[in-house]
Amino acid sequence: MNNRISTGMMFNQSISMMMAKQSKMNHLEQQLATGKKLVSAKDDPVAAGTAVGLDRAVAELDRFARNGDVVENRLGLQENALAQAGEMMAHITELTIQANNPALSAADLKSIASELKSVRDGLLSLANSTDGTGRYLFGGTDDADAPFKLSNGVVTYNGDQTQRQVEVAPDTFVKDALPGSEIFLRIRTGDGTLDGGAAGTNTGTGVLTTFGRDPASGNWDGASYTLRFTGPDAYEVVDATNTVVKTGAFKAGEDITFEGVSMRIEGEPKAGDSFGIGAADARDIFSTLDGMINALDNAADDPTAVARQQNILQAGIRDVARASEKFIDARAAGGAQLKAIDDAGALRDANGVTLKTTLSAMRDLDYAEAIGQYQLEQISLQAAQTIFTQMQQMSLFNAIR
User: Do 353 and 263 reside in the same domain of the chain?
Assistant: First the structure.
């Protein structure tokens, strides 16, 4: 077998070598111009595919960060609103204590009622606070419209009961602002466990000042009881079935204890007057304020009306205290979510650094290495061009000349 090397074959090989060197140099020039190791996916298909996945992960972290910013803004505004609401509760308590002063005239009480109305209206405005983007803070997930509306003197809630959860880091969720129903409506009355009050038909001047648990008289079973006056200085206690559980002599200012609870009544009740005690219910703060405002607006000078007003104001003070506690609890819950957002931010930052470092190793060009490779390829191309030039001068005629 004869192996034959033709002049055409040598020319083709030299041209192919020079073209390959030029292509390599063009590729290196693109890398140097862009600063990227992967100019196109064909440079390293596996690395290019991995980089796309990492890009998605980085973009997802950016989305989580935006989510966190939105929720942090809303929780911060909730904190501000609840702080102002707490200050309003303190002011309401001051006004109520002032209104309990028997020396005040009906005109003075109406003035206090007017101020309470202003506080109520301010609280309603806070309950309809927005987050600056047109969304309402306390509407739950139905936050496109104002959650609280005043209609015929009654405040109603039009939001939903859902507290939105937002992902702020991989598999890390935080809770958005609380629905207004949980903050302003479902407020326990009395001391949060027990609640007591005077019957609206009382004709005496008895005022329920304090009540509470009294383990010395037994274990309260959660039932409701009614303390009924059979005379100015005698009473009986009946349960829900009207069964008498205790009788006794009344002395103003002394605790009356029975079935694990106690009550203290000041003033002079009359026969037929009654006071109830039982498990605390829930009431919205607006109804509490409206009751106090009406009591002050309709104040009268007769002792029975004054006692009725004082009973309403005493109950109002207790309910306002529970509302204040509710606002504090809501602020604490919001603070916990803000802390979770900060922790999620630290996690995102750490993950972002790791992902971007990995991406940089895959994509970013090592300029020193690339420049060295470029110079090497340049020298190789020059050598190939020199060889090709010399080969052009080779001829059989030159050999036999």
Answer: no
